[in-house]
Amino acid sequence: MKRFTRALVVAVAALPALAGVAATGRGDTEDGRIVSDAPWPSLPEWGELDDFAHGYLSRTVYEHARAQTALEVRDIRYLSDGLLIRGMLIRPRNPVGQKWPAIIFNRGGTGDYGRIGNYGVPCKQEGDSCLYLVDLLQLAENGFVVIASDYRFHGPTGKRDEWGGKEVDDVLNLVPALKSMDVVDPSRLYMLGQSRGGTMTYIALKRGAPVRAAAVIAGPTLLSADTRSFIHGDWFLKGNEWFDGAPRVWPDYEHRADEYYHERSAALWPEKINVPVLILHSRTDKLVPVTQALRIAEAMQSHDKVYSLIIYGSDGHSLTKNAADRTRRIAEWFDQYGAHAAIQ
User: Fold this and answer.
1) How far, in Å, CA of 53 to CA of 286, rounded?
2) Cβ-Cβ contacts under 8 Å for 222 (sequence gap 6 or more)
């Protein structure tokens, strides 16, 4: 593959110019084995969604997702480091003997906030699994199997979420899960991360996730004790109803804080990112500052890494105003790196 570096910036106002381990968890042979597989709960009716969901999605897009029949959504449980992890799998209902490219999706959120499964909680801002599902169905309609992990830290352990620690194994152990599926071509795997899931994506790439390309939406890339520099508010240090706070979650924080932040800061180790990355962000993101995207792009530029940077002039954290364009760009990025070059 011919290597190139490309920075594409889309914005309303001018932005500053940019400067010129084992990949399957900890090696348990059971890692990635799918233990159970059941139908995913149906999407609720439009009228059952709250105002946040109504603002996130158009009714046309939502009703299309509810009505589509080409794809089926499965509620899976798989093994990761001896733990049973919940996941979501979207696959073609009738694969007609083909092997499909697959995307590993890494969700955002912390602990019980932002889980892919709403577990009986109405779809709303705090339990937005239906929003994830609609977004991922749109991506899958471009010819992909999609799989996502709910990560291990939730319920009794939710507030002890390591935010890029042991739960990265839960992402990497989706690789053998995909390789076990007849419908998936294991040579055509890709990764997409959103928000905190972007940080997880970069760490997975550093650890050698066998994907051809990756995409990150609004992912923190340069973490520090000055938490407002990478995420809104002071909850990452002080904690909130979803999270105890990094000083109480990361062992020996007083002496090892710099180590923990460095491990989660892809902008500090771009030389370890060896696949093409599409970076998407909004200039007006109020949760994760756009500077996080600029820093990783600058770092990858300085190390002659392959990337593309898309900055939307005015949008929210999840790029909902540009959802169709966002999804199109991600699908085309993966296609650029062989997603549908040789469908069997």
Assistant:
1) 18
2) 229, 230, 265, 266, 267, 268, 292, 295, 296
Chain centre to alpha carbon of residue 10: 22
The domains of the chain, with CATH numbers, are 34-336 (3.40.50.1820)
d(CA 248, CA 225): 13
For the cut 80, the answer to whether the pLDDT of residue 74 exceeds it is yes
Share of the chain above pLDDT 70, in %: 88
Residue for token digits 């756009």? 290
Q: What is the pLDDT of residues 135-167, one digit of tens each?
A: 999 999 999 999 999 999 999 999 999 999 999
Q: Which residue has the tokens 């997603």?
A: 339
Phi, psi of 171 (to 5 degrees): -75, -50
Burial 110-119 (b: 16+ CB within 10 A, else e): bbbbbbbbbe
Residue that is written with structure tokens 């390789």 in the block = 179
Q: Determine contact, residues 208/75, Cβ cutoff 8 Å.
A: no
Cα–Cα distance measured from residue 86 to residue 269, given in angstroms and rounded to the nearest whole number: 31
Q: Count Cβ neighbours within 10 Å for each residue of 152-187 and write b for 16 or more, e otherwise.
A: bbbeeebbebbbbbbbbbbbbbbbbbbbebeebbee
46 touches 114 (CB < 8 A): no
DSSP string, 42-81: PPPPGGGS-HHHHHHS-HHHHHHHHH--SEEEEEEEEEET
Q: 70-86 burial string, b = 16+ CB within 10 Å, else e?
A: ebebbbbebbbbeeebb
What's the CA gap between 273 and 238, in Å, rounded? Answer: 31
- Predicted local distance difference test score (pLDDT) of residue 215: 99
Tens of pLDDT, residue by residue over 227-257, are 999 999 999 999 999 999 999 999 999 999 9
